Amino acid sequence: MFKGLLLTKTDGHYAAHVQSIDDAVLGEGDVTVGVEWSTLNYKDGLAITGKSPVVRRFPLVPGIDFAGTVYSSQSPRWKVGDKVVLNGWGVGESHSGGLAQTARVKGEWLIALPAAFSTRQAMAIGTAGYTAMLCVLALERHGVKPSDGEVLVTGANGGVGSVAVSLLSRLGYTVTASTGRLQETAYLQSLGATTVIDRSELSAPGKPIGKERWAAVVDSVGSHTLANACAGTRYGGAVAACGLAQGMDFPGSVAPFILRGITLYGIDSVMAPLAKREEAWARLARDLDVAKLDAITSEIALEDAIGVASDLLAGKVRGRVVVKP
Known about the structure:
Largest sheet: 7 strands, mixed
Order of helices and strands: EEEHEEEEHEHEHEHEHEHEHHEHE
Number of helices: 10
Number of strands: 15
Shape: globular
CATH superfamily of the largest domain: Medium-chain alcohol dehydrogenases, catalytic domain
Helix content: 25-40%
Strand content: 25-35%
Radius of gyration: 19 Å
CATH topology of the largest domain: Quinone Oxidoreductase, Chain A, domain 1
Distance between the termini: 14 Å
Structural class: alpha/beta
């Protein structure tokens, strides 16, 4: 038995409780990990609150990522004592995840903890920060350079947005941060944002094509925000879309694509291949300012995760939240 956050659904009643959990809940896997840190991402908020049908089987431990130490292994890739990180692969959705003291997963889902990070720092980055790095890599591969002009980051106070602002500014880009909390302007500027705009400039229905402003965009919001971001992207620019905080619809136009030749990149962090994951984490180890990482991170106990999950969905959480089970 071990402590964890367990989701259950009985006769249509959805519940989340921190309790002692039997090993059988963990599911199949050839590596057992002692979870030292986990975190709360937007998808975890949906899973814990039941606001969206993220969870595909019950009972289940939520938590789409974790970092810890291998307890036992039948995988040739891992041995007892190895420090590992997991992001995605359906963990926390169809396979029990990181919001517990123990996790059991497939060895091929794990990557080695970068030497530059502690397990706590790895979860301060978490899937949100790893996704932000995947977005930056997509923009770089497109050929976007700091000299090309402003890069827009939407949902900038969130986990993806905070890390994206920090990464892009350190790489020399001029960053415009869009947020619904202008009272956090000083915080975003401390991460490296040059300009902070109100999300209302992007969140309402807009024109099919607008004034060229952004050389590139990192969007974690979707819906009208994504459509307006595309409409304002410069000729030949790129937009990396990785989230749907406003909605999964895309009420936009083909105009920016066929008149300005912009490119929309879909960023998937859940099923990304191993090589792409390792590249993203290697770049995080090289390019992320750990001092800024500490500034955007708060820490909670496992017992607090249920309440904070609701705050996360309500847009009341700044930056990253790490969970110590």
